């Protein structure tokens, strides 16, 4: 998978896995990683699927309707790529936190749903529920931050509430943060995510 790896100053910190929104690329989330944790290593990955020329992480059948078969396949593909990247770049595979926006947040949530130990935690900006009706793994000890917009036309508030409940049911430590905005990634929610992340990693 096309990607960028930047080695951090402090190798004890989590490696941040950056996952862009539809039409983004591996550069889109770099400024956000800097704000979340400027000293951490960063692995930023471009989605392998194109929709009308725009990179994504998995196919969809329509707005808000995921191609589940492709989602399962692409989640497995990404998980295997992370295993390979950890060996290649010599970072701790068990100490990885995803920072995803929109489609990138959806694949990050899917990683946690399908592969219990794929991530230590995740910051999910405007995610949807990746899959319904599946048995979730025990996510005890995993930390998840969900940033949502009360007026988000693409990811309705009910989606965020449902995802929050699913993570709670799976025993994850999850926080749901609201902005009175739409689907855009705002400075305020990045700041809230950064504070949440700092509170976990500076204890």
Overall description:
The chain has 203 residues and is an alpha/beta fold. The protein is built from five helices and eleven strands; from the N terminus they run E-E-H-E-E-E-E-E-H-E-H-E-E-H-E-H. The chain has a seven-stranded mixed beta sheet, with helices on both faces. The protein has a two-stranded antiparallel ribbon with strand order 4-5. The protein has a two-stranded antiparallel ribbon with strand order 6-7. Helix 2 crosses helix 3. The relative contact order is 0.15.
Summarize the structure.
This protein is an alpha/beta fold and 203 residues long.
Any idea what the shape is?
Answer: globular
Strand order across the largest sheet: 1-3-2-8-9-10-11
Q: Please report which band the strand proportion falls in: under 5%, 5-15%, 15-25%, 25-35%, 35-45% or over 45%.
A: 15-25%
The main β sheet shows up as: 7 strands, mixed
Rg, rounded, reads 15 Å
Low-confidence stretches: none
Estimate percent helicity.
25-40%
Order of helices and strands: EEHEEEEEHEHEEHEH
Helix count equals 5
Strand element count:
11
Query: Can you give the mean pLDDT?
Result: 95
Distance between the termini: 34 Å
Q: In terms of structural class, how would the helical and strand content be classed?
A: alpha/beta
């Amino acid at each position: 998978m096309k990607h960028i790896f930047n080695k951090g100053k402090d190798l004890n910190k989590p490696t941040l896995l950056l996952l862009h929104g539809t039409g983004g690329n591996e550069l889109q989330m770099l400024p956000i990683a800097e704000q979340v944790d400027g000293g951490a290593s960063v692995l930023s990955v471009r989605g392998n699927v194109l929709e009308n020329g725009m990179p994504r992480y998995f196919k969809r059948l329509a707005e808000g309707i995921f191609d589940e078969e492709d989602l399962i396949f692409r989640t497995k593909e990404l998980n295997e790529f992370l295993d390979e990247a950890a060996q290649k770049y010599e970072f701790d595979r068990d100490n990885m936190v995803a920072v995803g926006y929109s489609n990138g947040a959806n694949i990050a949530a899917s990683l946690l749903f399908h592969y219990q130990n794929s991530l230590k935690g995740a910051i999910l900006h405007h995610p949807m529920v990746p899959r319904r009706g599946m048995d979730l793994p025990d996510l005890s000890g995993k930390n998840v931050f969900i940033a949502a917009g009360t007026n988000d036309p693409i990811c309705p508030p009910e989606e965020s509430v449902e995802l929050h409940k699913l993570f709670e049911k799976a025993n994850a430590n999850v926080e749901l943060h609201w902005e009175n905005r739409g689907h855009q990634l705002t400075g305020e929610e990045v700041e809230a995510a950064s504070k949440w992340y700092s509170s976990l990693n500076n204890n």
